[in-house]
């Protein structure tokens, strides 16, 4: 990588020397000013699928850990990308992990725990020796690479002042393990880990054991003895209180949140979560941009919700503004929020408020083979993004990171055709793509997009 090409204000693809270039509109990472956004990385050789070095030999299947081998390969790739960008591991401020869960099994039930990530975490902790960055860990049904067990993407903040991310911790809050970062602050930014409603002890062996094992903190539990007892509401409130405590410990508050990621095990919990969200953020015009992902596996028994956030510090409050125009979500968040030199979008699907799945994004019922579902839906999503960008005075080709959630990864190839057409004459954004465990919020919608745009 020619580092002289990395200029402040520019958007630059990062390609380590010798790294294969797959035939998709893809960049391993994108440098945008002082930001570095990574595509989802797995143990793929980018040519044939799972790398040979990451595979467990079929004739000795029990002598090595498949997760351990894949994690080691993944982090070697991450190290190469980070070095090519002129960055270091300690500048990474967010990690998102997507684990292959057992959702494809007909016996799978919401709330099952089917992921064993221990050896991945051990490898991750060896890479991040100074500080393990804020992170989320979510179980999904399928990954893009056959036999891959984990995919991870990353965000780094390369502060011009040379500042390093510093950990932030709220006193008195239960913590999962040494080295875990509840949050990190760098400059006027604060990044908070995905949080769940646990005290990292649960009711195992406790006097309050109710007969069903779970990991929930006492304050987040419901007794389910009466109508209207909604576990997701209690859990959401508990999580937001925890995040508010960490923000306060850093010197800011959730009033300065610019983006929230909300993951739900069960889409039927949406209304309960929304009730609580409205109490915390009564004015949607001042709320953070928000992505809400249903049908994923949350990594603790009994936990139904996970929430992560990016925030600004109070001295940078003037750098936050709501983007209005182009699209108005049905749920309680703005279409997008400008935060310093980034624009965070709320989750986008190919929806029309009058009919659900937009007619322009739908195949003709009598001619179901005369088009590609994925391409039509992604094209509509990108058109919706263009309208939001126009309202913000930006260009959709300034998108630097996309996380795409599919109900079926067979839609991916078509979606990438629309993606290729949009970014034909510009950089190729960093992209992560995963398959969740069922339908999205609107019947017929097979793609939900989460975008970050760089606008200096």
TrEMBL record:
Superkingdom to which the source organism belongs: Bacteria
InterPro entries per UniProt: RutC-like_sf, YjgF/YER057c/UK114
CDD domains in the record: YjgF_YER057c_UK114_family (cd00448)
Gene3D superfamilies (UniProt xref): RutC-like
PANTHER family: 2-IMINOBUTANOATE/2-IMINOPROPANOATE DEAMINASE RIDA (PTHR11803), 2-IMINOBUTANOATE_2-IMINOPROPANOATE DEAMINASE (PTHR11803:SF39)
Name of the featured protein: RidA family protein
């Amino acid at each position: 990588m020619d580092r002289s090409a990395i200029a402040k204000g520019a958007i630059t693809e990062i390609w380590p020397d010798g790294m294969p270039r797959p035939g998709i509109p893809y960049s391993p990472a994108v440098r945008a000013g002082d930001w570095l956004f990574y595509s989802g990385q797995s143990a793929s050789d980018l040519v044939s699928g799972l790398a040979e070095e990451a595979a467990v030999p079929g004739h000795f299947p029990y002598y090595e850990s498949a997760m351990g081998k894949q994690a080691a390969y993944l982090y070697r790739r991450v190290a190469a990308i980070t070095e090519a960008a002129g960055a270091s591991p300690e500048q990474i401020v967010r990690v998102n992990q997507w684990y292959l869960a057992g959702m494809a099994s007909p016996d799978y039930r919401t709330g099952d725990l089917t992921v064993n990530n221990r050896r991945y975490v051990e490898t991750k902790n060896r890479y991040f020796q100074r500080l393990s960055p804020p992170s989320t860990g979510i179980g999904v049904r399928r990954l893009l690479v056959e036999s891959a067990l984990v995919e991870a993407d990353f965000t780094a903040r390369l502060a011009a002042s040379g500042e390093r991310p510093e950990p932030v911790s709220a006193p008195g809050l239960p913590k999962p393990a040494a080295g875990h970062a509840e949050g990190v602050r760098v400059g006027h930014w604060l990044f908070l880990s995905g949080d769940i409603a646990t005290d990292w002890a649960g009711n195992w062996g406790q006097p309050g054991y109710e007969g069903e094992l779970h990991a929930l903190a006492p304050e987040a539990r419901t007794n389910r003895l009466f109508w209207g007892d909604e576990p997701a509401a209690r859990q959401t409130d508990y999580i937001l209180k925890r995040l508010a405590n960490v923000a306060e410990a850093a010197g800011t508050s959730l009033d300065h949140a610019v983006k929230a990621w909300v993951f739900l095990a069960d889409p039927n919990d949406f209304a309960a979560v929304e009730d609580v969200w409205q109490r915390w953020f009564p004015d949607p015009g001042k709320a953070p941009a928000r992505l809400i992902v249903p049908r994923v596996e949350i990594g603790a028994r009994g936990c139904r919700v996970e929430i992560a956030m990016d925030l600004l510090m109070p001295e940078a409050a003037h750098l936050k503004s709501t983007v209005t125009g182009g699209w108005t979500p049905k749920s309680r968040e703005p279409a997008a929020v400008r935060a310093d030199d980034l624009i965070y979008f709320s989750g986008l699907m190919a929806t029309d408020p009058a009919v659900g799945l937009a007619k322009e994004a739908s195949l003709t019922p009598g001619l179901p083979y005369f088009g590609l579902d994925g391409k039509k839906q992604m094209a509509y999503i990108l058109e919706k993004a263009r309208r939001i960008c126009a309202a913000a005075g930006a260009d959709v080709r300034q998108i630097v990171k996309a996380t795409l959630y599919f109900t079926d990864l067979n839609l991916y190839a078509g979606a990438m055709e629309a993606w290729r057409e949009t970014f034909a004459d510009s950089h190729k954004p960093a992209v992560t793509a995963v398959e969740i465990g069922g339908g999205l919020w609107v019947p017929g919608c097979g793609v939900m997009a989460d975008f970050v745009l760089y606008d200096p």
